[in-house]
Specification:
It contains 6 helices and 20 strands. By secondary structure, the protein is an alpha+beta fold. It has a domain of about 230 residues. The strands form 5 sheets. It has an 8-stranded antiparallel sheet with strand order 1-2-3-16-15-17-13-14, with helices on one face. The protein has a 5-stranded antiparallel sheet with strand order 4-20-5-18-19, with helices on one face. Strand 10 and strand 11 form a beta hairpin. The longest helix is centred in the N-terminal third of the chain and has 72 residues. InterPro entries: NAGPA. This is Phosphodiester glycosidase domain-containing protein.
């Protein structure tokens, strides 16, 4: 070992000696450290009393809060029960009021249905209720449809093959559009190998070929946006536009207004006297009545007169009645079947049809 290293070791030993000696003294000595009592003061009686009171106060408050919460919960439950009962009572009141309000309509419907007889078929859905009746008159067999429209899309009028100048049978129109029933609509005129609707015609709220003032014995009949039958003579477009018509067609003549028969022009009393007929009318409650009468031919030897159709409409309680195209055009389709007996021996192709949907 070199002299310099030995010198360094002696120096470090001399420097650490006092500290080592002090550490040994502390280890062998029995030294205790005592803190004064004031360092941990004892709680006084008054302080303990105050703490106890505070604890009781907290407990009392919690108990009171619990009681209030219980009372509040009971009150809420009581109010909820009362609300539910009131709501149930109001619902029952509304049902009763609705039933009472509808009672006259129900009675009225029974009356007009009773006049028609017993329905041979009924189609009922959210859109409509349609009933088919067979009616035997002295000189002809006829059929009636009583229809209650419940939806804006329960009835519409279509053009033959959906185009101006197009023509198709009512059965074809029913099948093509997925309808459950259908009848022929307005009159027509032929030209250039095509068949055009007669006079003013409206489809989907639009004029097919413009407005034409009703002349002579012509009239217009259709449905408005409220599913109400509207019809009559209109000298200007504004008159018809004011009715907000969805669809409609034209023919001759008007048969019934406000339950009373109109005067049938002489021409239509004898041209022909008897024939297959299709008429459309309405009831006071807005239901529709369509009557189709059979006739073996259009020569006047079979079928119904317009006066007889007036009598039927009155007997069945109709309000306003309109004569649609008849003769070989008369067509009644129900559930995919041809109900009437077309005088042509087969259905005629026509430019307009009234269709019904369920």
């Amino acid at each position: 070992m070199s002299p310099s290293i030995r010198m360094l070791n002696r120096t470090m030993l001399l420097a650490c000696t006092p500290f080592v000696a002090m550490l040994l003294w502390l280890m062998v000595s029995n030294i205790s450290i005592i803190l004064p009592g004031s360092s941990f003061p004892e709680a006084s009686f008054e302080q303990e009393e105050a703490a106890a009171d505070h604890t009781k106060s907290i407990a009392s408050g919690l108990d009171a809060a619990h009681q209030i919460a219980a009372k509040t919960s009971a009150s809420i439950k009581k109010q909820l029960k009362l609300y539910n009962q009131t709501n149930a009572d109001m619902t029952q009141i509304v049902k009763t009021a609705t039933a009472q309000a509808n009672r006259p309509l129900i009675v009225y419907d029974r009356i007009i249905t009773g006049r028609l007889g017993t329905p041979s078929g009924t189609i009922s859905s959210d859109k409509l209720r349609a009933q088919l009746f067979y009616i035997k008159a002295d000189n002809f067999q006829s059929y009636a449809l009583k229809i209650k429209l419940k939806s804006n899309d329960a009835m519409k009028m279509v053009l033959g093959k959906d185009k101006i100048g197009g023509a198709e049978t009512t059965l074809a129109a029913v099948q093509r559009n997925g309808a459950v029933a259908g009848v022929n609509a307005g009159g027509f005129a032929d030209g250039g190998g095509k068949r055009y609707p007669l006079s003013t015609t409206i489809v989907n709220g639009s004029y097919v070929e413009g407005f034409e003032p009703t002349r002579a014995d012509l009239f217009f009949v259709g449905l408005n946006a409220s599913n109400k039958l509207v019809g009559g003579k209109f000298t200007n477009k504004q008159q018809l536009d004011s009715l907000n018509v969805k669809f409609g067609a034209s023919f001759v003549p008007v048969l019934l207004k406000n339950g009373s028969p109109t005067t049938i022009p002489t021409k239509w009393q004898v041209s022909p006297a008897r024939a297959p007929r299709t008429v459309i009318a309405n009831y006071k409650d807005g239901q529709l009545l369509i009557i189709v009468a059979d006739g073996r031919n259009e020569g006047g030897s079979s079928g119904a007169t317009l006066a007889e159709m007036q009598l039927l409409l009155q007997r069945f309680g109709a309000e306003d009645g309109y004569n649609l195209d008849g003769g070989g055009s008369s067509s009644l389709i129900w559930n995919g079947r041809v109900i009437n007996k077309p005088s042509d021996g087969q259905l005629r192709k026509l430019p307009t049809h009234f269709l019904f949907f369920k």
